[in-house]
Recover the amino acids of this structure.
């Protein structure tokens, strides 16, 4: 059973970036504990899906660097969704050959255990509004932006399955989509696939 996870940082009023696209307000809250948890989460992903904007930002940040986090991001298989790019040059990345619905259905058919979605915001809005996400990790930062790009563009019923508070005031909330399979069932399948059950 495939688990499709979306993880993003958001302000307390639900925005992922300022109106001009900045997200530098998240970095003061990235303490050692949060980064360790983030690396653990990223290490569990078998494939990552990205929109064009996030691909360009991430590939510029990690593509030519090394280190624990860079190595994770460079080594994981990545599928990039874009209407304008004709090729991608980040290692282990390829352009999507179908819609998000088709690509995710293919990954489910192939039995890929864990698929991560990292954004950007418009891509996150698309997959959430089309019911393609099983689980959301929303890292809520102690700041209100007042305006910007929201993480959701439509009503998405969720149920809280976990929460952790960090010393910086950041709260990491994990939600399951209301229509998603039971968390224990999905988690057990993922653990078996990774040999940790």
């Amino acid at each position: 059973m495939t688990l499709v996870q979306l993880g993003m940082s958001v302000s307390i009023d639900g925005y992922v970036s300022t109106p001009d696209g900045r997200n530098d307000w998240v970095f003061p809250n990235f303490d050692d504990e949060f980064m360790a948890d983030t690396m653990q989460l990223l290490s569990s992903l078998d494939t990552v899906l990205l929109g064009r904007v996030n691909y360009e930002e991430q590939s510029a940040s990690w593509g030519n660097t090394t280190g624990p986090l860079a190595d994770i991001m460079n080594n994981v298989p990545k599928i990039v969704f874009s209407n304008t790019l004709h090729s991608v040059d980040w290692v282990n990345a390829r352009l999507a050959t179908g819609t998000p619905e088709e690509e995710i259905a293919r990954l489910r058919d192939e039995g890929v255990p864990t698929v991560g979605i990292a954004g950007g915001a418009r891509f996150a809005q698309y997959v959430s509004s089309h019911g393609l996400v099983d689980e959301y990790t929303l890292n809520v930062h102690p700041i209100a932006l007042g305006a910007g790009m929201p993480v959701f563009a439509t009503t998405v019923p969720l149920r809280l399955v976990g929460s952790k508070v960090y010393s910086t005031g950041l709260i990491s909330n994990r939600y399951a989509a209301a229509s998603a399979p039971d968390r224990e069932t999905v988690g057990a399948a993922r653990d078996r696939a990774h040999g940790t059950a």
